[in-house]
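Final paragraph of the annual report: two paired records, presented back to back.
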Amino acid sequence: MPEVERTTKKETFMQGVVTIMFSQILIKVLGLIYTLYLTNREGFGDAGNAIYASGYQIYALLLTISSIGVPNAISKLVAERLALGDSRGANRIFKVALATFGAIGAVGTMLLFFGAHTLAYDFIQIPEAELTLIALSPAIFFVSISSVLRGYFNGRRTLKTTARAQTLEQVFKTVLTIVIVEIVAHITSTSTEMMAAGANVATTIATFSSFIYLFMYYRVRRKEIGNEIASSVNYKYESVKTIVKKILKVSVPLTLSSIMTSFNKNIDSFTVKRILSTYMASDVATRLYGQLSGKVDTLTNLPLAINIAFATALVPAISAAKAKNDKETATKRTSFSLLTSMLIGLPCVVGMIVFAQPILNLLYPNANEGALLLQLISVSVIFSILDQTINGALQGFGKVIVPAVALGIGVIVKLILNLILLPVPELNVYGAAIGSIACHMVAFLIVFNILKRNVKLDLPFKKFIFKPAVATGIMAVCSYTMFLILNSIIPGNGATIIAMLFAVIIYVLSVVVLKIYNKEDIYMLPKGDKIYKLLEKIKLY
């Protein structure tokens, strides 16, 4: 018990959030680098993105089935045992999970390897994707094992470990993607199909590097963990069958939620090119799908990657608070996380709407089409971000099936809208964008209403919606005015970069001046006491 308390003090809720947040920002910046490289690389472009993304989405679906729900499930169960002082029970959960999901991951690898031809030719109807699926198949096994290790360390509140592992994986993925694709391009005389496969070989090698890091870290900590187990109290023996049932009881609903997310992406994989090709040239349909799956999805996923920190940290934090019947802490952390998610999501949405074309010009100078598509899809981001945080809270409270059901309903709505809107030539690929907005809006409305029934949120309209909207409006008007002024003076993309940096500064100042965070909120931030004293000193609070 004393060791658990020291660990909790060492890495608080917000320290964990900040650790994951910075890690995710770095991961997404690195991801953006190799995406920019691929999209602007001669011989790759939107067509290469279509091959790469279609194969990756199938891989992601099988990966979801084998492991995605596992980290949060194990994190929740381990955090509950540690909160009660049962380190031995927490370690037993980890070992049983490692054997179980290692086996499941191996099955997933074989399914993807041997089913690659059928999936590429019959399902997504992009034959070139077969090699990308084969290249990705070993990654499922490594990620399945890594997910158990990540869940165990998250439950122990050592979120830095999992953050470092994910960052290491992305560093390897970025460097190896560029190196391998360049080698393949040279050997094959710029074959788009082979370059896409090479990019996914880099993904497999990167997942292996992450697994090795987590495994070595566990070996280093094994003696310390052994000492904790020896001094464990409140140990409650559970059979392997009981532990597996418990893990599956939590992980299956979480996995279903992730499967719904993957289905959401695969709906576009299965419908966009197939339907668009009925009234336009196949290569044009492929490029439009490439814009949607490559550029637009990459950009709209950036805010979600930053916000995932709250969803990840909320699960063990609320699970531990619930185990100790500490309702006040659970409510405060949920309210604070939702407010912060709103403050992250709203300016991102408006920024992508206002600066859509300048952003594409900046990032994809050789393939800058898709501004309207980006503007449309960005509307779904605010719903996705809030939904993400609420799901973390609901999982912590034990309402693990709700996110899956909500997103499942949203996915059905998207499928129906895709089938109705994509065949309309005037809408074409924008029909998929409208379907995505409807999907995430429906899912958010469902989970938000369920959360309000279980938690008395401290989020009045003025604080949660009105003030963030005012701050975002001020940011948009000031930054776009700055852009228009600079655009006639500074050539190239300089005006875009300066205007966006200016937007960040104006937004932060607006949040402070409008006092969206109260004293208690500020104190939840790392170094919050010092921040509040500074704001008092300059008479802003």
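The closing record of the year follows.
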Amino acid sequence: MAFRASLVAALALAGVGFLLFSLAHQALDQTRASPLNAWLALLASLAASLSPALLLESSVGGGATVALALALALLVCWFPGEGSQARSWLGLGAGLGLLLAESPVLAAAAILALVVQRGVLRSVLPERSVGLLAAGLGGGALLVLLPVLLRPLAPTSWVGIGLVHSFGEIRALDVLALRGRGLGAWMHQVGPIAFLLSCAGAVLGWLRPSLRGVAAPLLVPLVLDALIPARSSGLLTPDPLGALRMFSLCGASTLAVFAIQGVALFLWNLALPLVRPAGVLAVAFYAALVAAVAEEGSSQADRSRNAGAEAWTDQAFELLPPASLILARSDTILWRLWAARLASGMRPDITVVPSSFLSHGTLAGALLQEEPSLASLLRDISATGTPSEFSLSTVADVRPLFLEIDPQGDRKIASHTASESLWLRFAPQPYGPSDRRLGRTAATTAFYRVVGAARRNEPHDEATLEVLALHARNLAVASALLHDRDSTQLALDQLAALRRNPTPDDPLWDIIDPQRKAPLRGRHSRR
């Protein structure tokens, strides 16, 4: 199932590469027909389609590559001088309707790009063409909304293609990350020289009338990418601007070959010695940059070398007792557990209770049917948002219970917890200090085993390290509530080993050190 879902995104990336090659080739041929144009168009296609951002997006189900392929198909089909027939207007409108359902942000950028193109070419649309365009747009939107109109009460009536699945969704939700821009990614991948080539290609494309009709729509995503600031958000949260960032990468790679063609043709026409080899070296230089981008992209997209997620699954999921029950507060943990079960059918005997999703649909009823002892726990969560000591003890009497403790929880609940593997196990009776010490030793071994697996290869598995940071914070909260200095120091040492020390304004310090004194500096735990 996971392979079939990611195959759609991979095929869409192949379509992106082909469409970008066609667009660049047609634009270069309008300037001057030359055998070099095909090679330059190929370099533009590879520079974008083999970049780390697009390769990573194409390795998961859905993704922005589907929407990006639709946007590029509209630009290719609506190349300057084409698309004058009525059916072309209908097709353009239908494509925009599908793109609007796939990615509203990219659809807005594509519409703006087409409007800018028509404005640059000084072409006014007749009223009949506008009507056909609107009819095609309405027909495409109606096609996507048809399940909702026919079966509005069905649980899966909304298609929602591409609005849910993307690469960002498999990253940690609770840890904030700064989203980057497509221009920043392009400069990081190919360097400042190639970025200057893109800028020169943009200027050249704007000055040349033969390239203006193609360069103008490609400049639109670049300008929007530069104007829209990067935002701080969860790593698991899908970035609604991800498709726009990738559209800007495609535009930058295409504009760069405009500059390369201009440099090569200028040197080729000079009657000076060694200028023709210099033109060949300019093309070879850009080809070397594209090869470097492809190598970096393949290294980042190759998850087979990254064993961090598998090691975490083995320690945190596979080794749990039979018929265990997990009360997860963090969406990070939930996505990990659900991904392991979806991809490989792992541990079907374990029940996962997502406290943040209990109000969605009939999830609470399904959980209650599976485990009747959850009645009081589900009632407490729905009423107060947190379970009580009694409801947790009721579940722990029936099944092994593992949980993420509430940062605002009380000391009574924390007294029932002890470290086991990477979790806090809740027992019906309070644990003693010796029991916590025994579980803490085994949990430390499991923790650093997963850290070693996540850092075994380059680049490190940052997503797994973020999940481990959540485990460490969970241990720090429980230990601080119990005034267990050794366990609290151990949790802080684990965060330090992950290079994720809590900042001075971190709410974690309100629990560890309510008086806001200096951080704990006791003896370091043995690793």
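Confidence is low (pLDDT under 50) at residues 157-178, 232-237, 521-527. This concludes the annual technical report; the extension proposal builds directly on these records.
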